[in-house]
Write a structure and sequence with these properties.
- The protein is of the alpha+beta class and 98 residues long.
- It has one domain (6-96): Alpha-Beta Plaits (2-Layer Sandwich), CATH 3.30.70.
- The protein has three helices and four strands.
- It has helices at 19-34, 63-71, 73-83, and strands at 6-14, 39-46, 54-60, 87-96.
- A four-stranded antiparallel β-sheet has the order 2-3-1-4.
- Strand 2 and strand 3 (54-60) form a beta hairpin.
- Helix 1 (19-34) runs antiparallel to helix 3 (73-83).
- The radius of gyration is 13 Å and the shape is globular.
């Protein structure tokens, strides 16, 4: 397996009352994303202090693989059309590793 050279941290803050719905959709997105060529990991974590933040940690072989991920049908359907409208805020960090 090729090592990841591109790390993505996505910070999601669900709107009030939407946390469970976001987590359910995120699990579907994680399964589909892990099967993509160039994906080397897709995990998400809940804030340990009880805050509503969900941290998604994505690892890709190259930045181009992350760009391709954002164009997939599962990302467009699950993230863009379903998850993002349920968020109060979000931000993305891209970190080159190589």
């Amino acid at each position: 397996m090729t090592e990841a050279s591109h790390l993505v941290l996505a910070h999601y803050h669900p709107a009030p009352g939407q946390h469970a719905a976001v987590l359910a959709l995120l699990e579907e997105l994680a399964v589909a994303s892990r099967a993509e060529p160039g994906n080397r990991g897709y995990d998400y974590f809940l804030s340990p202090d009880g805050a509503a933040e969900i941290l998604i940690v994505e690892r890709y072989e190259r930045a181009a693989d992350f760009a391709a991920h954002r164009e997939t049908e599962h990302f467009q359907d699950l993230a863009v059309r379903q998850i993002i409208p349920l968020l109060a805020r979000r931000w993305i960090e891209e970190i080159p590793l190589g």
